[in-house]
Amino acid sequence: MGCARCGRRQSDPASGPSDWRRGVLHVQQVLVCPACAADGALDSLDRCAACGSTALVRRLGETTCRGCGAVDCAVEGEGYAEAPAGGRSALEADVAAALERVLRTGVERDGEAPPASRSQH
Ligand SMILES: [Zn+2]
Ligand SMILES: [Zn+2]
User: Fold this and answer.
1) Which residues contact 51 (CB under 8 A, 6 or more apart)?
2) How far is the CA of 71 from the centre of ligand 1 (A)?
3) pLDDT tens string 62-75
């Protein structure tokens, strides 16, 4: 498993995952490398709704907070804009924006249409 933000792999497992921070992102157990953790990457992880900690662990289908022990009370974090593999995220954002524009236009058109029920009588 590599870093959830930059995709970097642990180069030396013997040195232990102690510098790597474990967390949960979109209800999945992830690791964050020390550099990203120092860069505020932990703020984008899922966090405990009870105490606000991002020190969460996925275990047996549950998210457990290591800060206060709360179970399944995590709020999904915003995650990272750039995918670890890179490449497709910009295109996907364009598609999503275009789709949203179409949907919003449809809603506005519905809103402009006057209600037909009163004009008939
Ligand atoms: Zn990283
Ligand atoms: Zn907590």
Assistant:
1) 65, 67, 68, 70
2) 27
3) 999 999 999 999 99
